[in-house]
């Protein structure tokens, strides 16, 4: 059996990976935590119950008949040495021929992130890895920040006047499907950005035009933004991560567009206008 095991198969990126693999005629086994999650998979994908905290025997069972893996770290897992390293070991024991890991842009210079530890372990074990290092998701605006946009017509993030080369998560799915099914990508890392570099003020202008109602970028200070998160009851570790993320943004580290999506898939990255049209329901009351 030649099949691809997709972790996070019902999530934002995992579902896109699953879709594009199925479009290519691949056999996809989606990792799920429950029967309810299994019901969210496309009918042509196979659901398989899976937990990174499983025993060695359970990890082995999850990989039965699998020859390639799409690996992403669940946001709740910080201790990757305890939960992800054993899964990587199981992949190696099963002679998995490729592990595509969803990493983080700039991870090579940020040793404190779990993603850095995973990338280093993949190299240390001589795993047949491919690392994908995406920029900020456009879908943050239709997910994390959707309530403020929908209810108040405001984008509230402390990005200042910095630029960001946003990426559509669906494009990550296209890239993952490409590198999982075409040769020549083992032991490589790809930084993935969109082809536009936009200030949040420009993001608000585009959303205003496409949605037909005013959207404003409020440009809060870091302190005001962190205080807003605290008032909403977010935990300290989440607030600390947000603080780090937007300090990186304000340094314009995420500002640089590239054509890697186009190079790898033969099609350009999704433009922001198209994303807003496709996700317009996210911001309607």
Automatic annotation (TrEMBL):
GO terms for molecular function: NAD(P)H dehydrogenase (quinone) activity. The keyword Oxidoreductase applies. The keyword Oxidoreductase applies. Its EC number is 1.6.5.2. CDD domains: TMR_SDR_a. InterPro entries: Ergot_Alk_Oxidoreductase, NAD(P)-bd_dom_sf, NmrA-like. It comes from the Bacteria. Residues 2-238 form the NmrA-like domain. Pfam families: NmrA. Keywords: Oxidoreductase. PANTHER family: PRESTALK A DIFFERENTIATION PROTEIN A, PTHR43162. This is SDR family oxidoreductase.
């Amino acid at each position: 059996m030649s099949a691809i095991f997709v972790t996070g198969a019902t999530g934002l990126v995992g579902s896109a990976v699953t879709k594009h693999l199925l479009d290519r005629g691949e056999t996809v086994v989606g990792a799920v935590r429950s029967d309810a999650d299994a019901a969210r998979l496309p009918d042509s994908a196979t659901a398989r119950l899976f937990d990174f905290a499983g025993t060695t025997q359970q990890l082995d069972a999850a990989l039965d008949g699998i020859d390639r893996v799409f690996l992403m770290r669940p946001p709740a897992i910080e201790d990757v040495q305890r939960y992800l390293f054993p899964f990587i070991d199981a992949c190696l024991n099963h002679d998995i021929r490729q592990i595509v890991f969803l990493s983080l842009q700039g991870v090579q210079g940020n040793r404190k992130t779990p993603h850095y530890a995973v990338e280093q372990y993949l190299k240390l074990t001589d795993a047949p890895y491919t690392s994908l290092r995406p920029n900020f998701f456009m879908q943050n605006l239709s997910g994390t920040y959707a309530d403020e946009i929908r209810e108040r017509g405001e984008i509230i993030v402390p990005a200042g006047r910095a630029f960001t080369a946003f990426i559509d998560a669906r494009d990550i799915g296209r890239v993952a499907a490409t590198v999982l099914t075409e040769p020549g990508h083992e032991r490589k890392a790809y930084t993935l950005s969109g082809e536009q570099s936009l200030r949040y003020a420009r993001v608000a202008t585009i959303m205003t035009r496409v949605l037909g109602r005013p959207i404003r970028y409020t440009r809060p200070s870091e302190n005001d933004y962190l205080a807003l998160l605290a008032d909403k009851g977010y935990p300290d570790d989440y607030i600390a991560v947000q603080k780090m993320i937007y300090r990186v943004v304000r340094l314009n580290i995420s500002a640089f567009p590239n054509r890697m999506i186009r190079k790898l898939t033969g099609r350009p990255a999704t433009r922001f206008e198209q994303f807003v049209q496709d996700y317009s329901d996210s911001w309607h009351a």
